[in-house]
């Protein structure tokens, strides 16, 4: 397990109680691919494909291995009910998931137990938990829900072990994302109303600057795009959503 003595003594609250409550209400429905988290179920394979390639590139492992994270620790921040934690565990990682909503970590724990996976789930504010450092830190579709983004990114950086890898994804703040991800998706019932607040979206340039201030260097950025023919896919088009890797400077 990671070194639990590493903590942040200067952390500030980054959780928005109303955001935590919103996602907590969705907890029991999280694993239903046709439920309120249906979009995440469609998005997850795309993110996992990017993540697997990033892991292989970062550590230079065997691309044929089914457990490329064997012997490594992983922290998923904003883990929800464990949609990413479980694949990370199957890739061999010692996984810890953190979420602001205790309802989510309760559902995640039960689902992992049912799947025979040993995953530690912890509810609460990341900076107050004393979890230590991890080889891999993931934070997907989370920062747009965070109150103090700079403080949150400092926490992520503080939990990344030397030589570690950070992977983040988030919607871009563009006219296209407002029309499709907020107004369109909510009107069509593709995501629950109130899930996204467009003003809180972060552009790739803004996120790279914030990560730099936290001591991290972005190493790769790709878009997650949608087309009627390809569905959701990794692309150079970052107008809707993007995913990136970063490491300590």
Shape: globular
Strands, total number = 8
CATH topology: Rossmann fold
Number of DSSP helical runs: 7
What's the helical proportion of residues?
Answer: 25-40%
Please indicate the percent range of residues in DSSP E strands (runs of 2 or more): 15-25%
Looking at CATH, the homologous superfamily is: Vaccinia Virus protein VP39
Q: What Rg do the Cα atoms give? A: 17 Å
Q: Helix and strand succession?
A: HHEHEHEEHEHHEEE
Question: How would you portray this structure in words?
Answer:
The chain is an alpha/beta fold. It has a single domain (about 15-249), classed as Vaccinia Virus protein VP39 (Rossmann fold, 3-Layer(aba) Sandwich). Helix content is about 35%, strand content about 25%. It has helices at about 15-25, 40-60, 85-90, 100-115, 150-160, 175-185, 205-215, and strands spanning about 75, 95-100, 120-125, 135-140, 160-170, 215-225, 230-235, 240-249. An 8-stranded mixed beta sheet has the order 3-2-1-4-5-8-6-7. Helix 3 links the parallel strand 1 (about 75) and strand 2 (about 95-100).
SSE blueprint and pairings:
Blueprint lengths: L16 H8 L13 H22 L13 E5 L7 H6 L3 E6 L2 H13 L5 E4 L10 E7 L8 H10 L1 E12 L3 H13 L16 H10 L2 E12 L3 E5 L5 E8 L1
Parallel strand pairs: 1-2, 1-4, 2-3, 4-5
Antiparallel strand pairs: 5-8, 6-7, 6-8
């Amino acid at each position: 397990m990671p070194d639990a003595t590493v903590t942040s003594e200067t952390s500030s609250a980054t959780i928005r109680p109303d955001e935590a409550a919103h996602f907590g209400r969705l907890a029991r429905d999280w694993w239903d691919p046709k439920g309120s988290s249906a979009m995440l179920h469609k998005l997850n394979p795309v993110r996992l494909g990017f993540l697997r390639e990033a892991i292989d590139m970062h550590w230079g492992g065997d691309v044929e291995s089914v457990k490329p994270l064997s012997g490594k620790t992983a922290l998923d921040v904003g883990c929800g009910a464990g949609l990413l934690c479980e694949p990370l565990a199957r890739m061999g990682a010692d996984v810890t998931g953190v979420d602001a909503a205790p309802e989510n970590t309760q559902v995640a724990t039960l689902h992992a137990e049912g799947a025979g996976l040993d995953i530690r789930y912890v509810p609460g504010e990341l900076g107050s938990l004393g979890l230590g450092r991890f080889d891999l830190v993931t934070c997907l579709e989370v920062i747009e829900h965070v109150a103090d983004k700079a403080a949150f990114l400092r926490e992520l950086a503080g939990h990344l072990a030397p030589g570690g890898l950070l992977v983040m994804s988030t919607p871009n703040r563009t006219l296209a994302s407002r029309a499709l991800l907020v107004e369109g998706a909510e009107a069509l019932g593709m995501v629950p109303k109130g899930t996204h607040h467009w003003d809180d979206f972060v552009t790739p340039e803004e996120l790279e600057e914030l990560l730099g201030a936290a001591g991290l260097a972005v190493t790769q950025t790709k878009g997650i795009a949608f087309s009627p023919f390809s569905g959701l896919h990794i692309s150079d088009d970052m107008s809707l959503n993007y995913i990136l890797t970063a490491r300590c400077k």
